[in-house]
Design brief:
With 276 residues, the protein is an alpha/beta fold. The protein contains 8 helices and 12 strands. The protein has a 5-stranded mixed sheet, covered by helices on one side. Helix 6 crosses helix 8. The two termini are 33 Å apart.
């Protein structure tokens, strides 16, 4: 039995299936999925259905595109021009799929494997324990009757910095932004959303969240996606960037957690790299 972590699929179902074939994925294996299962790619519906059917064989975390799908489902926001969500929204099993997606976590930790998975990252001044507790705050709302209200307040870039004194929707929005949208931040965790490229786009006073020298999670094994422009190169001990830009014509990546072996399958999408 092996455990494989896979980066952002974003509806690239054919590449996902090719990658599972490459690793000889079987019913004895486990999958970890870094979020952004859907959107921009051509087969988001097939991707959701397949992963849902895996049941306990798969662990996933929610990404910003997955949350966006739920917000569109709740009619909180309109689809963007680049969205490819119609097939899901018109599917006969839409309600079932959205209910399942809403039950998924924002952070997954396995103390036996000694790995934590999150879509975007963990701010420098949060420990794994802090991140778990704060992720659960959002998860509890997502799984409750207040989910609709959460999506009404989810969008926005402020507050830019975490404070234990934050309350209500501002608190939940900030937690969500850290776990599903963060790239660069200051040592205090101040967020910056304009820079979506590689490390060369780093703003003054900011570092990639995982590069801060006094990061509380520095001794932890962390898997994340979201940042396609890194092309899988976090270049930091114990930190594994798995979004390798499949939707942008690059590749889809799996990491076998048991021995840190990488597997890649080429993208079948139009080759035009950008960031998402």
């Amino acid at each position: 039995m092996a455990t494989y972590a896979i980066g952002d699929i974003q509806g690239c179902f054919d590449e996902f299936q090719n990658l599972l074939g490459l690793i000889n994925f079987s019913q004895n294996d486990k999958l970890w999925l870094c979020g952004d299962l859907v959107n921009r790619g051509p087969k988001s519906l097939q991707t959701l259905r397949f992963i849902k059917e895996l049941g306990v064989q798969a662990h996933m975390v929610l990404g910003n595109h997955d949350l966006h799908l739920l917000a569109v489902h709740y009619d909180i926001t309109r689809k963007k021009k680049s969205d490819t969500l119609d097939e899901i929204l018109n599917a006969p099993d839409r309600e079932e799929l959205m209910h399942w997606l809403q039950q998924q976590p924002l952070l997954h930790t396995d103390t036996v494997l000694n790995f934590t998975m999150v879509h975007a990252g963990i701010p420098p001044d949060w420990s794994i324990s802090n991140a778990q507790k704060r992720a659960q705050e959002v998860e509890n709302i997502l799984r409750s009757a207040k989910a609709h209200a959460f999506f009404e307040h989810m969008y926005g870039n402020k507050p830019e910095t975490w404070s234990n004194d934050l309350k209500g929707w501002k608190r939940l929005r900030t937690i969500t932004n850290y776990l599903t949208r963060m790239r660069f931040c200051t040592p205090e965790g101040k967020l910056e959303f304009a820079s979506k490229g590689g490390l060369e786009t780093q703003p003054d006073g900011f570092l990639p969240w995982y590069k801060h020298p006094h990061r509380k999670t520095a001794g932890e094994n962390i898997i994340f996606g979201h940042w396609a422009a890194l092309q899988g190169a976090a270049d930091t001990h114990n930190v594994y960037a798995l979004d390798t830009g499949c939707i942008w014509g690059l590749k889809l990546t799996a990491l076998r957690l048991d021995d840190l072996t990488y597997y890649h399958t080429p993208s079948l999408q139009k080759s035009a790299f950008a960031t998402g």
